[in-house]
Amino acid sequence: MLRWSQSKSRLRKPKLPDGLRIYAISDIHGCADLLQQMFAVIDRDLSTIGSRRAIHVFLGDYIDRGPDSNRTIELLIERGLKHESVFLMGNHEAFLLDVLQEPARLTEWRQFGGLQTLLSYGLKPSINPDLAEQADLIRELARAIPPHHMKFLQALRPRFVCGDFFFVHAGVRPGVPLAKQVENDLLWIREEFLLSDENFGKYIVHGHTPVQQPDIRFNRVNIDTGAYATGNLTLLTIQHDSLLAL
């Protein structure tokens, strides 16, 4: 359990509007069982907050690497029907949508953990598929992905702003106003953002780059704790100016 660091207490803490609580999760990567565990934690907390408004914010990378991308997407869709939710695009979802248009990128996708996604939708690719098999696999995948899953993937947002907080998958490019950030950076950026001590104008909540434990800094918080490799899926709770990572 990590709370907001007091080392920067001289700075004004970012705040949410009164009466609002946010639950944020990033980089699930097909770990459906861990996601269900986090839902149970959230549900217990929801029973204590009374009339406060609660928003679930998911920061992308729902698929690949882990064992059950298919079920993960289904759980997220079901959750969104019952709770106010915001679903952001991750680079892995963006890459899947690209592969569906360009089957030749299948080999590259496999290096990102795409094999596990193929298997979760019932496909059985060979070890080294040739171009013809790659095209067949992508056609089969397009048929295997349920229409409501495809609708979910195509509707993912690149960013979400609430109060003083800016939610995004990977981060933002330093020196560029938040309103002018390009989607490629929001989904893929690493070092330029991670090494920056810039005040971005909003407090950035992100994932994308795995860390051993939530990395809470004065200008950003990284909540990607590498769930598929560590078994640790982090939940960040925000209320007013309080951040609590579980």
Please give a handful of descriptors for the protein shown:
246 residues; alpha/beta; six-stranded mixed sheet; five-stranded mixed sheet; 10 helices; 11 strands; 36% helix
Protein described:
The protein is α/β, with parallel strands linked by helices. Helix content is 36%, strand content 17%. The protein is built from 10 helices and 11 strands. The strands form 2 sheets. A 6-stranded mixed beta sheet has the order 1-11-10-2-3-4, with helices on one face. Helix 1 (32-46) packs parallel to helix 2 (69-82).
Succession of helices and strands: EEHEHEHHHHHEEHHEEEHEE
Helix content: 25-40%
Low-pLDDT parts are 5-9
Query: What structural class is derived from the secondary structure elements?
Result: alpha/beta
Rg over CA atoms, rounded to whole Å, is 18 Å
Average pLDDT works out at 94
Largest sheet: 6 strands, mixed
Number of helices: 10
Strand content: 15-25%
The total count of strands amounts to: 11
Put the structure in a nutshell.
By secondary structure, the chain is of the alpha/beta class.
Give the helices and strands, then pairings:
Layout: E1 2-3, E2 20-25, H1 32-46, E3 53-58, H2 69-82, E4 85-87, H3 91-101, H4 106-111, H5 114-120, H6 131-144, H7 147-154, E5 159-162, E6 165-168, H8 183-188, H9 191-194, E7 203-206, E8 215-216, E9 220-222, H10 227-230, E10 235-239, E11 242-245
Parallel strand pairs: 2-3, 3-4, 6-7, 7-9
Antiparallel strand pairs: 1-11, 2-10, 5-6, 8-9, 10-11
Helix pairs in contact: 1-2
